[in-house]
Structure formats: C-alpha cells, structure tokens
C-alpha cells in the first residue's frame, strides 16, 4: 500500500483557534505515525469573507505549532477554471439547473410553507431549497439569463440519486451519533445543493471533492460538523468519477459553555494564546493530544 496522504484545509476567513490546532495536529500526528504525507490547502473560494492577512496568519500559526506540510500549498482561488469545467460536465448531463432567488426570497418562501407544515431542514438546520428554479419554463429561464440576473447552479438531487443509487463511505472516526464503520450516505437530506454559487463558479462541496482527488488525499481528517456533508461528497465523487478517500471525523472542541468554538472566540485564538505566553506543547495538552513520541 502506498503511504497515506492527509490534508489540513482551513478557510482564511478568520484566525485559527484551538479547534483548528486540534485538527491540524491530529492530521500531522497521523501522517507521521503512518509514514504518510500532510498537505495544506487554503479553501478561499469565498472572496467576500477570505482575506490575505488570515492566510498569512495560518502559515505563521502552523509554523509556531510545529505543523509542517509537504509540497506546495494549494489555494482554491487559483483553480476556479478547473471547478468551472467540472460543473460544466455535470450541466452537460442535465444534472444542474440555475436558481435565481436571493436568500431573502428563499427565506420568505420557506416561512410561507412553514405556516402550512414544517418545511424540511438539512442536517445543518437550513431549510431545503424549495425547487423553484427547476420548475421554471425553458423560455423564462432563458429570459432571466439574458437579462443578466445572477444565478447559482443547483444539483438536481433526484436525477443525481437515480444515477448513483446507494452510496457509502468508510468512517474511521465517529459521527455526531458515534457512528463508525461503513456509513450509508444520505445526500437527499441536503436537497438540491448549490454546486456553483452566484459569485463564484464553485461551492465548498464541489471544490473539496475535486481537490481531495487531485491531491491524492487518501484519508480526510476533519471535524464532526462535516460528518453529514460527506454524503454530498460521496455523491459528487460518484458523478465526477473521483476515487473516495476514507474519512475520520473527530469530535469538536467546545468552550466552557459547551458551544462549538468559532472564529470569533478570542480566548481560544492561537494568536491570543501565543501572546499570553502559552507554548505549543501546552496547546497539545489543551486539546487533549499526548506529547509527540
Ligand atoms: N475549509 C473547511 C473549514 O475550514 C474544512 C473543509 C474540510 O476539511 O473538508 O471548515
């Protein structure tokens, strides 16, 4: 068996905190213990929230932590054409459709539906897309496009599922409910997900599966908040003919009140900890990792 390939894939939309440190150190430990490699990927497709100073801080904070990566850093914003061509492949098979509504319009529609009966939510709690774009007549759709109305491209989930059939993934970690082993994918729980956003020709789900495959990643180690996203990743891998890695979702670190750490959690920010004189070895202890052998 070739040595495993791991990756740490932060988004530069804030400073790294203890939760990121845990994920990065766990990836680095697993890579070292298995004689594998660790890659670093900057997931910066969201141009409104990502900033160069956050990216710079990622390099500094990882260097301080002692997390070294192999090879060149891959920055997603450098590969938009690649993602665009993958979306075109899906479009050529009739698997995506344009959706023109704004978030506010979708929220209004869903609120109206909620009056009748509770509208279904995805595993993150967001309402499923009500499918309006799909029901547009071809001529209406063409008119909106010609008028320059921006649109996202959504996956026709029913058509995609009909092609893919049952899918599963190998889980080495644990999910929100402690699941491990072979997990049945449930992409339908997400509805018609966005594959290309209005402002960028890709989405988190699409770029992550393309990059993991292109970079030869064999083991994805990431937080349990992304456990059920793996359902969508398995479906896109199937549709695009990409090999699935194995997954190891890890528990999320929580703050004293039991809340998931967020980018704004100042007290757990690695820069704040460093300024307060905390050492990288102490960070390992704080996140519950043993000293390296
Ligand atoms: N970029 C994502 C984040 O920072 C992680 C994506 C992944 O590991 O699949 O939350």
TrEMBL record:
Matching InterPro entries: aa-tRNA-synth_I_CS (IPR001412), Glu/Gln-tRNA-synth (IPR000924), Glu/Gln-tRNA-synth_Ib_cat-dom (IPR020058), GluQ/Sye (IPR049940), Rossmann-like_a/b/a_fold (IPR014729)
What's the short name of a Pfam family annotated to this entry? tRNA-synt_1c
**Domain Glutamyl/glutaminyl-tRNA synthetase class Ib catalytic, which positions?**
7-280
Protein biosynthesis: is it a keyword of this entry? yes
The keyword RNA-binding is assigned to this record: no
UniProt GO BP = glutamyl-tRNA aminoacylation
Sorted alphabetically, the keyword list is: Aminoacyl-tRNA synthetase, ATP-binding, Ligase, Metal-binding, Nucleotide-binding, Protein biosynthesis, Zinc
Q: Which Gene3D superfamilies match?
A: HUPs (3.40.50.620)
Gene Ontology terms, MF aspect: ATP binding; glutamate-tRNA ligase activity
GO CC annotations?
cytosol
Q: PANTHER family from the entry?
A: GLUTAMATE--TRNA LIGASE (PTHR43311), GLUTAMYL-Q TRNA(ASP) SYNTHETASE (PTHR43311:SF1)
| Family label | Belongs to the class-I aminoacyl-tRNA synthetase family.
Family annotation (NCBIfam families): PRK05710.1-4 (NF004315)
Provide the protein name.
Glutamyl-Q tRNA(Asp) synthetase
Native source species:
Rhodopseudomonas pentothenatexigens
């Amino acid at each position: 068996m070739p040595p495993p390939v791991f990756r740490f894939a932060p988004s530069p939309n804030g400073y790294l905190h203890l939760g990121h440190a845990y994920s990065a150190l766990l990836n680095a430990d697993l890579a070292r213990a298995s004689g594998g490699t660790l890659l670093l990927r900057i997931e910066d497709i969201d141009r409104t929230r990502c900033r160069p100073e956050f990216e710079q801080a990622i390099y500094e904070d990882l260097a301080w932590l002692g997390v070294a990566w192999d090879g060149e850093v891959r920055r997603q914003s450098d590969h938009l054409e690649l993602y665009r061509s993958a979306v075109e492949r899906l479009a050529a098979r009739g698997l995506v459709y344009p959706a023109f509504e704004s978030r506010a319009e979708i929220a209004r529609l869903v609120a109206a539906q909620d009056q009748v009966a509770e509208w279904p939510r995805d595993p993150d709690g967001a309402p499923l897309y009500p499918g309006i774009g799909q029901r547009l007549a071809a001529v209406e759709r063409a008119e909106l496009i010609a008028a320059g109305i921006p649109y996202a491209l959504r996956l026709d989930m029913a058509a995609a599922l009909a092609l893919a059939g049952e899918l599963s993934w190998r889980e080495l970690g644990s999910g929100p409910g402690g699941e491990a082993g072979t997990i049945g994918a449930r992409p339908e729980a997400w509805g018609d997900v966005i594959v290309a956003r209005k402002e960028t020709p890709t989405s988190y789900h699409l770029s992550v599966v393309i990059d993991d495959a292109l970079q030869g990643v064999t083991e994805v180690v990431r937080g349990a908040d992304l456990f059920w996203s793996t359902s969508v990743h398995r479906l896109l891998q199937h549709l695009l003919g990409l090999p699935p890695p194995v997954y190891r979702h890890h528990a999320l670190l929580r703050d004293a009140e039991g809340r998931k750490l967020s980018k704004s959690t100042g007290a757990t920010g690695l820069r704040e900890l460093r300024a307060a004189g905390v050492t990288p070895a102490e960070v390992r202890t704080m996140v519950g990792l043993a000293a390296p052998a």
